[in-house]
Amino acid sequence: MTLTPGLRSQLLTMVEKSDTAMKLGSGDVPVLATPRMLALAEQATIQAVAGALDPGQTSVGTKVVLEHLAGSLIGTHVEITAELTEVDGRRLVFGFTARDRHTTVAVGTIERVVVDRERFLAKLAR
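The structure assignment produced for this chain is given below.
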């Protein structure tokens, strides 16, 4: 595998009703839910390293620090950028930022570990 700091990914999403705190049960307001924000950030980290992993490898999340700084109403476009900032053996550390056209919506870090997909799943089946 060729994983080096600097690998990046960006994704753009529009907040829909299905993304809201009300719909996901994490609050009672019609704004982008924090759990959905996290899922989008993780998706960006996965995309950032997808082409650099060996066949049969994947990464799994192990640690998250997320600051959800501003609400995003239905219809708001949010861009999430993730960058690989540290590689320590199989451990990967990403920084991420989510922005709408006016403000920073969220920032944080996500740690993932590279695993062999089949071995990882086999251990869980025991």
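Interim note for the steering committee: The mean pLDDT is 96. The helical segments are 21-24, 34-49, 117-124.
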